[in-house]
Amino acid sequence: MLKLGLLTVLVAAATSPFVHAVSSQIYTWKNVKIGGGGGFVPGIVFNPTEKGLAYARTDIGGAYKLNADNSWTALLDFADDARWNYWGVDALATDPVQTSRLYLATGMYTNSWDPNNGQILISTDYGKTFAASPLPFKVGGNMPGRGMGERLAVDPNSNGILFFGARSGNGLWKSTNFGATWTQVTSFPSTVDTSFASLGYNSDKVGIAWVTFDKTSGTSGSPTPRIFVGVANKGSSNIFVTNNGGTSWSAVAGQNTTFIPHKGVLSPSEKAIYVSYSDGAGPYDGTLGSVYRYDIAASTWKDITPVSGSDLYFGFGGVAVDLQKPGTIMVAALNSWWPDGQIFRSTDSGTTWSRFWEWTSYPDMNKYYTYSDSLAPWLGPNYVDTTAGDKQIGWMMEALVIDPFDSNHWLYGTGATIYGGQDLLKWDTTHNVSLNAWADGIEETAIQGLISPPSGPSLLSAVGDIGGFAHTSLTTPPKASFSNPTWATAADIDFAGLQPATIVRIGTGDSSSGKQCALSYDSGVTWTPHSGAADNVSGGKVAISADGSTVLWRTSANGVQVSSNMASFTTVSSLPSSAVIASDKKTASVFYGASGSSFYLSTDSGKTFAVKGSLGSSTSPVKIVVNTGVTGDVWVSTDKGLFHSTDSGATFTAISGVTQAWAIALGAPAKSGGYPALFAAANIGGVGYFRSDDAGVNWVKINDAAHGFGSASSNVLTADPRIYGRVYIGTNGRGIFYGDASGAAPPPTTTASTTTTTSTTTTGTTTTTKSTTTTTTSSAPTGTAPAGAYGQCGGQGWTGPTTCVAGYTCTYSNPYYSQCVPS
Ligand SMILES: *[C@@H]1O[C@H](CO)[C@@H](O)[C@H](O)[C@H]1NC(C)=O
Ligand SMILES: *[C@@H]1O[C@H](CO)[C@@H](O)[C@H](O)[C@H]1NC(C)=O
Ligand SMILES: *[C@@H]1O[C@H](CO)[C@@H](O)[C@H](O)[C@H]1NC(C)=O
Hints:
It is built from one helix and 64 strands.
C-alpha cells in the first residue's frame, strides 16, 4: 500500500523535475536491547478468562503482549509517521468472551502538541493486526492521569458492548458493535465537564478515569446492567453507577470525595469494588490518598487505607485482586519518593495489611523480597536518584495485577520498567518473594542522539529519562548507563573523527548533576565533566572537533558556545542560536552550521562562522552529516529537501525527488572505496526510510509496512561505518532499532522522471542559482558491457561499465554518479 502511494506520487510529480528511481529492499529490523522498558508502564491487563493472556500499555511506545517466558512482544510497530500517535495508549481492554479481541484507545496528547484526534484500535487476533475506529476527539496516552484506568471496558456479558471514558470533558462513549462506531452516552452526568484539570500540559481536564462492569449483576448474553464509572474529580461526586446498562446514572451514595479515584477494581466473588485514591491525577504527584472497599450488595463504603498519620505521605495507584483467593488484595503507593516505593497486601479484604518493606531501626529496613535486575542490569539498585535511597521497588506505580489463573504470578509497572514474580504466595508465609525486572522485549525509550564511531562499540546513545549507553552488544542489555555525571536525559552525543574513542555528550539540565557537558576518552566507559561548562547551561546539540580538543555546543537557551582544551565556553555570536551544527571528521579546525537557508563554515575551530552557501528555499535545516573521509563533503537535511556539497558548502546540489528530509546518516559503502551509503528519513514520494548507494541518485526504501518507526521528524539515525547497509534508528518511544539489508540490493526499477540539479553559489551578497533539467530514467548496472540507456557509467568507487550503448553519452552528474543520457 505504501509502495502504491509512492508510485502514484512519482507519476504525479513528473512535472516537478527530478531524477531517481526508488525500489525497496527487505531489511531485518530488531530492537537494540536495552531490556528494561526504560519508561512509564501505566497499564497491565490480564484477560480474566484465557490463561496467560496479558497486555501492557505504555505512554509513548505502544502496547505489548505477554509471552509465556515473561518477555513481551510489541504490537504497534507498524505505526508510521502518519500514525505516530498510536504509540500513546491511554486505555486497553481485552475481551473476556472472545479472548482474541483486543481494544486500544490511542492518541498522544489532548493539547496542541498532537493535532490528531484519537482512535480505538480494534484487533480480533490478539493484536497481530488492527483496524482503527476514529474518535471525534483527542485521546491523551501521554497526558497526566494516564495511569488511571482502565477507561475502556468490554461488557463481560455481552461483548459487543464497550464503554470508553474520554478526557477533556468529552464524556462517556458507548459502542454496541465491537468498537466499530461510538456514540456519546448523553445521560452520563456532566460532572466530567468540570472534572479535575491537571496542572501540566495546558491544564486539560482528565475526565473519566475508569469504567468497571459489575459482571455479577447480569447474565451471559445480555447487557450488564450495573456499571461503575470513576471520574477524575475531587470535592464533589466522582464515582457513578448505572443499574440499567447506562440509561440513567447516579452518584454512588456514601462515597468520600476528598481525593481522585484512580482505580475501581471488581472482586466478583466478594461483590465488592476496591478503589484507590490520590490527591493528584498522577503519574508524578500524590502526597495523600486512601483506599476504600465498596460492598455492592450492602451499598456501604469502608475506609481500608493501609497506613495513616505521618506514614501516609503518598497517594495510591495500583490495585490488584486475586480472583483465585477472594479477599486477597494488593495496593501500591502511587509515588513514595523516599526511601522507596511501597506495596501493601491483605488477605482479609483490607482489614489488615502487610508491607513490601519495613523500617527496622532507621536507616535499616527489612526488604521482604529478593531483587533481580539481571534482564536489565542498568536499572541497578541505585537507579538515577542516588541521593534518595535505593528505589528498587519503583515509582509511578499505577499498574498492579495478579494473574487471574495463578496466585503466585504478579506484575506491576513503574516509571521505568515492569517488575514481577512467580512466588507471590510466599508473601503470606515466609514473607519473602522474588522481585524481577521483567520488561524484556519492552523498549520504550525516547532516543535523542546516536553515534556509530569507526572503532569501539558500534553504537552509543543519548537517551531520554535514562541517560544513554555504550552498546557493546546489540543483543544483550548494557550493564550500566553513562555516569559521572548521571543525567536523566542526555540531549546529544558526538565522537572525534580522528580519535573516535573521544566522545562528548550533553545533558538537559539536571541541576543536581552539575555540568551538563562531559567527555569520555575511552569510548564511553568513563567520563569527565567538562570543567569549562557553566552550571546553568544545558540541552541542545553538540559537536566535537576531529582531534577531540574543541567542543561546539548549541545550547537550548544560551546560544552557541565553544571551548577548546577544557577552557571555559565562550559565546559564538556569528552562528544563530537556532543553528544545527557538525564537526568535520578529518580537519580539526573545521565546523559546520546551518540555519534558515544559510550554511555556515568555521575554519578556526568554531570561534567564528561565516555564511558559505545557500540551502535553496529551506527554512529549517535538521541535520548536517559529514563524509568522514573527505573534508568539506557535507549533507544537510531540511524542510525543503536534501542538499549535498563537496566544497564545504560553497555550492549545494538539491537531491532530486527528496522533498523533505529529517535524520540522515552516512555508513559503510556498498563497495570498498566507494561513496558511503547514505540513509535518510525523508519524503521521497512518501515518508519513509531510504538508502542510496550512489550519493543520492537512486534510493531504496528500507522500511516496510510492519516497521513504521513513528514520527519521522522525531527520530535520529546513525549508520554503521563498519557494516555496509546497517542503520540504527532511534525512535521517540520505541527505543533503538537496527536494520540490516537482507540479500543484495535490488536493481532500481527503471523509472521515467526528470532531474534538476541546483547549485547555489553565494559570493559576497550575490547568490546565483543554476538549474539543469533533463528527462531521464535510471536502471541497474549491467556488468562490463556498455551501460544501457540511463544506466550508471561512472562515479567514485564505480566498477561497472564506463561507456554507453549507442545513442547515449556518459554524462557526469556528480562526483559519485555519471549516467548514460541520450546523445
Ligand atoms: C474522607 O476522606 C478523608 C481523607 O482520607 C478523611 O480525612 C475524612 O475523614 C473522610 N470523610 C469521611 C466522612 O469519612
Ligand atoms: C529475603 O531473602 C533475601 C534473599 O535470601 C535476603 O537477602 C533478605 O534479607 C530476605 N529478607 C528478609 C526481610 O529476611
Ligand atoms: C549563568 O549563571 C551565571 C552565574 O550564576 C550568571 O552570571 C550568568 O548570567 C548565567 N547565564 C545565563 C545565560 O543565565
